Amino acid sequence: MLPISYAVRNLFRVPARCAQIVLGAALVIALLMLASALSDGMDKVLRSSGSPRNVILLGSGSEDSVERSEVNAAVPGLVAASVPGIQTVLGRTAVSGEIHYNGFLTPPGDAERRQALLRGVTPAALLVHPEVQLLEGTFPRPGEAMVGRLATHKLRLPEGALKVGDTVRAGDTELRVSGIFQAPGTVMEAEVWTDLGDMMAIAQRDTISCAVVRLGEADFADVEIFALQRLDLELAALRESDYYAKLAAFYTPLRAMTWVTAALVAAGAVFGGLNTLYAAFSARVREMATLQAVGFKRPALLLSLLQESLLATMLGALLAAAFALWVADGFTVPFSIGTFVIDISPSVLGVGLLGGLALALVGALPPAWTCLRPPLPVALRSS
Q: Does 214 share its domain with 363?
């Protein structure tokens, strides 16, 4: 068996070639890590946004999009009075009438309108969304808006561009920023919340998008029966967790395209690496034959060549991991219904490591076999 120092010495024998292999591997592994982090981040934020204890009452036929839904504004009061066992907090029933609206917002000191996710709410929203926490300021009253911690990323504004006391414009309505809130790991952090009455004026509607019910002793079937019995209201009941799970499934093709792109780049890098290693190993046919002549077996030589490839790829993996942690970790990515934060987690690093291992084996085995395949007399006479 050849010592690993032999593989290390040969790896750095031609620095330019070594750098080419290492940097190529780093690019592929970094792309694999980013693809995994993007897919995991989007899926995680969507699945974490819905609570299994919440039931959404939507307009019948609008189960796939709360923004398209229209519900009578009296529904929150009706369901609170008709369904026993809804959670109560300090004597208040946890039912929130809401308007979800994808509109335009004009930030302070900026003439450009920017697309924003707006939600019209009442104070009851805090009863059904307990993950929402005020970081500063107050809950919005008429003429005010409360801004999510990540809303500036969705609006493509600098960090901290929206502060308490600033004035923004939604449609023809001016709103004073009353507070900043967070809702860790949910799409709500990218939203701007306003008073429900103001949102009705902004969206020019007299209906709401949905009523969100927080279950206490009641269960989902109780709310569903209410929706089925009130045919005049044309309602559909859906668990909030199921609604966001459907959205996660809707975005599956987008996440798949991320993986396909990474795989195509990886395939190109594999072919490039094959060419490099074919050139490197073909120049060492005589060297391998000499080692066979002095007693080393072909499996030992194959292992040594694989060690060279693996060492180069693992160096690339270290560079890729350092790049991902330095540049991508914590980076906020906006998408159509919110934002998510890229997390270079141990599982993402593991994907990169496994990808690097596969890259080393796939890229080295064909040229190594070509190098060791010629019969010993022919290999010793090769130039």
A: no
Check whether residue 31 and residue 77 sit in a common domain: no
Which tokens sit at 159? 């960090």
Burial class of 324 by CB neighbour count within 10 A (0 to 12, 13 to 18, 19+): buried
Beta bridge partners of 334: 339
Q: Match 């005589």 to its residue by tokens.
A: 286
Other CB atoms closer than 10 Å to residue 347's CB: what's the count?
11
Give ∠ CA 284-287-290 in degrees, rounded to 5.
150
- The series of mean pLDDT values per 10 residues for the chain, 383 residues long, is 71 75 83 86 84 93 89 94 91 93 85 87 94 94 94 86 91 91 91 94 92 94 93 92 86 78 72 64 66 73 78 87 89 81 89 83 73 62 56
Residue 242 lies in a domain: no
DSSP 221-240: HHHHHHHHH-TTT-EEEEEH
Type of residue found at 106: T
Structure-block tokens of residue 11: 């790896």
Burial code (b: 16+ CB inside 10 Å, e: under 16) for 77-106 equals: ebbbeebeebbeeeeebbbbbbbbbebebb
